[in-house]
C-alpha cells in the first residue's frame, strides 16, 4: 500500500473495471498492469469517484504502479513541461507529423523578424496541450458534463493534428501559391489536414493503437476531423451531439473564433517576434463554462472577461499589422510565391504507386505532399538547372536583400474597383464578441450576450478594412535605392491590368494580394 491510503490495488482495479469507467479500456490487463493517465483519473472522477480520498488513493496507486511513466514530457518554450499521452506520442513520432518541423509557422515573416524561426511542429504540440487543458478544466468544473476519457483524447488529437495539411511557408502556400497555379481553387490547408490525418493513421497502422487506448473507430476519426474542419455531414446534430457540441469549439471555433489554436499562436508568435502579448490564456481557462444556448451547449465566458476578449482580438489585429502583413514580409512572400510558380513544372515528388507529382499536384497525394516542405526554397536556391534559373534568381535576390519595392499603400476606399488586402477581426464585418455568450457569478448556468456599448464607447466602430499595396518587381539599384516610384520602368503586370488614377499607373506593378488568415 501507498502511504496511509486504505484502498488496495484490488479495490482500485475493481473500480477501474466498473461499468462507469469505460471498462473496456482496461480489458485484457491484469490488476498490476492497469494503465491510467492523468486524463483517465479526471475522467474517473467525473464518472463517480467524487470522494477526494478515493480520488487521491486511485491517483497514488496508479502512480506507484508506474502508470504515468509511459507519458512523455516535452519541454515547450511557451507552456513549459507538457505531459503527452502515449497515443499522442505515437502520432507525433510519424513522418507525417515530423514534417511540420520543416514548415515555418510564419512563412516569410522570418526574413523580417529574425526570431520568428519557429515551426508548425511546436505550435501543433502546443495546441494539443491547450486543447487538453481546456477540456479538462471544463471537466473538473462541471462534472455533470460527463466528459469521457475517450472524448478528452479525441480533443487532444484534433489539437495536435489541426495543421497537418499546411504546405511550404504555411499560409503562403494555400493563400498565394495555389490560387496563382489553380485560379479559383477552393483548396485550403484545413482540407489537407483531414487527408493527411487519414494518411498518417493508415500508413503507420495506428488504428489498433487507437482502439487499444479506448477510441471507437470510425466514429472517433469523424469526431476528430469535424473538430478541425467543422461538420462533415450536413445532417442536424442529434441530442447527444447537441449536449457535447461545446467540444467542437475547443480547437477551431467556427462560432466566434475564440479557440486554443489562437491562444497558442498568440503566445508563441509574440514570443518569437519579440512583440508583447497582452492576452493571457491562463486567465481565460479559469473563466470558461459550458451553458445551454438555444438548445446547444456552448463555451461561455464570465461576464467580467469581456474586455479581455476584446483585448484578445486587438492582439490578433496587432500581430497582423506589425508582423504577418508587414510590408516587407508581404514583398518577400510575393517573391517566394513567384519563385515557386516559376519552379512548379520542374520540381517533382514521388508519391503513391511510384507516380511523380509537380509541387502544385502534390496536394492530391499525401505521400508526395509529406515530402513537400520549406526545403523547396533551398532546393531551388542551390539548383544548377537552366529550367530553374528564373526561380533561382528571385530567391538569390531575397538572400541579397534585393526586394520588390512597396510603391504606395492606401486605404481601399480611394480605389473602389480594387480591394486586395483585408484586415479584420476574423469574421468579416462582424464583431466576434457578438457571437460569444457570458455567464455571471450569480447565474453561472444562464448565458447572456453583452453588447459593445455595454463594455466601452472606445471600442472599434468597424471590424474590417481593406488595403491596397502596390509593389514594383524591379529589383535593380536604380529603383530600390533611388526610390524611383515611376511604374513605367517596372516589369509588366501579370494580374489583370487595372487603372490606378491617383498614381497614374497603368502597368508595371504587382498588386499585393494579402492572405486571409
Ligand atoms: Zn494552428
Automatic annotation (TrEMBL):
Q: Which organism does this sequence originate in?
A: Esox lucius (Northern pike)
Name of the molecule in the record: HD domain-containing protein
Q: May I have one GO cellular component term?
A: nucleus
Annotated gene: SAMHD1
The record's comment on protein family reads: Belongs to the SAMHD1 family.
Domain HD, first and last residues per copy: 120-266
Can you provide one Gene Ontology molecular function annotated for this UniProt record? Answer: dGTPase activity
InterPro entries according to UniProt: dGTPase-like, HD/PDEase_dom, HD_domain
**Where on the tree of life does the source sit, at the highest rank?**
Eukaryota
One Gene Ontology BP term is: defense response to virus
